[in-house]
Input
Amino acid sequence: MASQQIHLGGDIYWDLNPWTAAEFGKIKVYTQSLRLIDTGIRLRPDTAWHRFDLVVDLQRRRYVSISIDEQTRDLGKTPLAEVRHADWGQEVALVITTESLAAWPNNNGHPYTWTTRFRDIHLTR
Output
């Protein structure tokens, strides 16, 4: 399989589900087999802007570090998430993805969602 047919993911996950109290507010990253790994950074959920830096080594397929609001963690031993796509072509693409979901744990018709917005994005090599 060509290397272009692999999604290498440097993916951040902020747990915003208040019904999982032990995980609420933790910053995690996706790694092999799409498992979540705790970075050791925890942010109390709010609607403020947060500055983050995620450094990855695509050649070695590893995270390097993560920084959020002056909290930095070394992730140098953590592999990036890899998803193989035999149906993809040979193109190379950079994707920035956000995800929102309804996390209300009952059926009363009042789910909530949240939105992630980016501003001042800087990509470096």
The mean pLDDT is 82. The beta strands are 6-9, 12-14, 26-31, 35-42, 52-57, 62-68, 71-74, 81-84.
